[in-house]
Specification:
alpha/beta, 5-stranded parallel β-sheet, 5 strands, globular, binds shikimate-3-phosphate
């Protein structure tokens, strides 16, 4: 960690699958003296199952309920962290600003497809059907923009994305 933060406000990263929320989040946490939390990992550890197993056994509806619960806990109990959300959290949870400052990592569809290797796609049940995934991407775009306080071009290398976030959010570092 760069510095200890005095229970600073959380930073919440949103964006579609493959936008680099975890990579950027970890780096941003190091640079801003925060801890890094990944909402999907929290859900997996609480459920004792991987996301793909939750989808297979309980379905998307149950997963979305887990996301809502996780968001309530984050808003009530967590400070001083960078939090990466699953790509759907911004569309199932209203007012993510209750958790912290919301930053949208924006990427064009073609770049998302390029980044998600077959191995990465296997972890993401909603990316198995490319046409349907693109429809989701189109549906969510406005929602991401509406929830975000800051929108950054995430097609650049992670360290540049982090620099831009820090430059644009005066209270971050
Ligand atoms: C989802 C995105 C995934 C994960 C789940 C559903 C979505 O997270 O939460 O597979 O609905 O876009 P990532 O954005 O980290 O891939």
């Amino acid at each position: 960690m760069a510095t200890d933060c005095d229970c600073a406000e959380n930073i919440v990263l949103i964006g579609f699958m493959g936008a680099g929320k975890s990579t950027v989040g970890r780096l941003l946490a190091q640079k801003s003296g925060r801890y890094f939390l990944d909402a999907d990992t929290l859900i997996e550890s609480e459920a004792g199952r991987r996301i793909d197993e939750i989808f297979k056994k309980e379905g998307e509806h149950a997963f979305r309920e887990m996301e809502r619960r996780c968001a309530r806990w984050l808003a009530a109990c967590v400070r001083g962290s960078v939090i990466s959300t699953g790509g759907g959290m911004a569309s199932v949870v209203e007012h993510l600003a209750r958790i912290g400052t919301v930053v949208y990592l924006k990427l064009p569809w073609e770049e998302i497809v390029r980044r998600l290797t077959p191995q990465e796609r296997r972890k993401r049940p909603l990316f198995s059907d490319l046409k349907e995934a693109k429809r989701r991407f189109e549906r969510r775009r406005n929602l991401y923009e509406t929830q975000a306080r800051l929108i950054v071009d995430a097609s650049r290398p992670p360290d540049e994305v982090v620099e831009e976030i820090i430059r644009n959010l005066p209270n971050v570092s």
